[in-house]
Amino acid sequence: MPVKINSLGFRDDREYALAKGPRTFRVLVLGDSVTFGHGSVYEHTYPFLVEQRLRAWRPDVDWQVWNLAVPGYNTSQELAQLLEVGPAFQPDLVIVGFFENDVVDNHVVAPPAATARARSAALTWLYRHVYSTSVYKRAYLELAWRLSASNSYRLRLQHVGAEAQLLEHVQSAQDLEGQRLTSFDRLDDCRLQAAPCAGAAGMAPDIVDAMRREPGWDAWADAVRRLQQLRRDGVYRLMFFVNMAPLGCPTSDVFYDGGSSRLNDFFVRTLGADSTPVATSYEAFRRVRPSQMPEASGHSIGNANVVKAEALFAFLRDVFLPQIAGGRAGAILRGPASDSARRAPR
After folding, report:
1. What is the pLDDT of residue 172?
2. How do beta strands 247-248 and 255-256 pair?
3. Where in the sequence is the domain holding 105, given as residue range(s)?
4. According to the 3-state scheme, what is the secondary structure of the chain?
5. pLDDT of residue 68
6. For position 204, what pLDDT does the model report?
7. CATH at 44
8. Residue 126's pLDDT is what?
9. Is position 336 within any domain?
10. By the 8 A CB rule, do 40 and 71 touch?
11. Residue 117, domain member (yes or no)
């Protein structure tokens, strides 16, 4: 999947000035490969789709939703990233995207220093750009196979035209099945009750305890507390977004609980300690069909990212943004907006 990293170092086809305009409301979205959009075209990542909904809802505001996610990052690395770039990027809101594997291999985050900043910047660059290179791997191997030679690097240099033609085909990835945004079924309570998932296996009863035994759990909990502290101290407006889906039923085309709600609720409670705002996509997925939600339980693409964007946008519109009253951001949100402009996009 073609990936562009802009001059500020994050995934976006657009370039930005650091200085904000008088009507700019800047949102930083942190996360791992799920938020980054592994396997997804940029225009279908959930941060981009949220920005489009915000713009349709309040066109009088210059919304900037910056996808700062880095493949492979966990919560402690996202904290370190925020401490590093936050002062320069001046966010009006920070959204920390959370997926269940973010609890693994965390470490205690030290205050940024000159050496640590340089190392962090280098590692972040490598994570993003190695990803940007590796996403072409399948096209590259296919090219080497088509050229029928073992020295694929030499042939890559010799057959620039053939490679360019192949990658041009990859550029149209948003037209591939699964990448397209299509209409999909929305299930009401009656339709959900009519399609139970009988006999399906669920998660282990001790799944939450197992999470606590993960290497780096204490460091993860510390990173969460420090992010919450940044919000309490007024350093950043900050919230979490648990972008998880329920289990897909193996016997019918529905999502089902199977103990997954227990895990979702645990993360919502933990991340939401001390009244930190938390949105979740879990319940939104309960009302759609897995067959229409590509990779919903992993690196979501296509319609699965639409569901995530809808859930996050609804929380921002109905819960989070109306609570912002003071300061520059509050003045922007109190600005002129007609009733039609405030209406949610459909």
Report:
1. 56
2. antiparallel
3. 24-342
4. CCCCECCCCCECCCCCCCCCCCCEEEEEEECCHHHHCCCCCHHHCHHHHHHHHHHHHCCCCEEEEEECCCCCCCHHHHHHHHHHHHHHHCCCEEEEEECHHHHCCCCCCCCCCHHHHHHHHHHHHHHHHHHHHHCCHHHHHHHHHHHCCCCHHHHHHHCHHHHHHHHHHHCCHHHCCCCCCCCCCCCCHHHHHCCCCCCCCCCCCCHHHHHHCCCCHHHHHHHHHHHHHHHHCCCCCEEEEECCCCEECCCCCCEECCCHHHHHHHHHHHHCHHHCCEEECHHHHHCCCHHHCCCCCCCCCCHHHHHHHHHHHHHHHHHHHHHCCCHHHHHHHCCCCCHHHHCCCC
5. 95
6. 78
7. 3.40.50.1110
8. 52
9. yes
10. no
11. yes
Q: Which token pair is 23?
A: 């009507």
Q: Which residues of the chain register pLDDT less than 70?
A: 1-2, 111-177, 194-195, 336-346
Number of CB atoms found within 10 A of residue 266's CB: 15
**Amino acid 289: pLDDT:** 94
**Per-residue pLDDT, 20:** 97
Residue 124, token pair as written in the block: 């972040």
Segment 31-73, tens digit of pLDDT = 999 999 988 889 999 999 999 999 999 999 999 999 999 888 8
pLDDT of residue 309: 98
Q: pLDDT value at position 175?
A: 62
pTM value is 0.81
In a domain, 274, yes or no: yes
Q: Which amino acid is at 155?
A: L
Residue type, 26: R
Q: How many domains does the chain have?
A: 1
